Amino acid sequence: MHLNQVFPWFYLLLAGIELSGRLWWMEGTRLELLSKPLPLLALLIYYLSQCPPWVKAFRAWLMPLALLGSWLGDILLMFPGEAFFLGGLGAFLLAHVAYILVLGEGRPIRRLVQTRSPAWVVLGFAPASLLLGYLWPYLPPAMQLPVGSYAIVISMMLLSALSRQGRVSALSFRMVTAGALLFVLSDSLLGLNTFAQEAFTIPKASFWVMLTYLSAQYLIVQGVLAQAKLAPAGPG
Fold first, then answer.
1. Backbone angles phi, psi at 204, to 5 degrees
2. What is the pLDDT of residues 103-115, one digit of tens each?
């Protein structure tokens, strides 16, 4: 059986272990240190095994950088304290910048300017902007700049996904856009649970954060691979 047939089930198994643990038995235990980093590590290895050689040679570090940044962010956010939170935020910021470059084909600003529909621009910036507006009164002063910067960057990541319409296959566009939207939703849930917990209670918040996050990463990787496999051989 081919790897691309087996991997979705393997990823589902790793994600299922992580998510079931958050529902019933693992959160806050040492087992989290093992189960949380595994899905992204598996996704990175899978991407490297599936990406065509000519795509690997062209800006080869961008997708692995996005996945490694996310993996590092996963690890840092497992530990309490402002320093670890800021470190995790920085790691995910790096991941989103890499995703912006991947989705913008190395020319993200040009691609964003070429976005065909004004509705895409609104959709790209509205979710994180609305969330930031809601969270702002709850943010400690030291967190306002980092969280505000992160909201801008993740909005650009979502808009970069939307700007691919008409430039990539319909399958790739749908998968990556769904993944980007789920990523924004995951970070929104995390932000609400971290800073506005008293005003906005989310039952089993970490479960929903990880469910949307792991789904987002999987869809983005599979969507990027779906397009990469259609790319003509050559340096791009």
1. 55, 45
2. 887 565 566 556 6
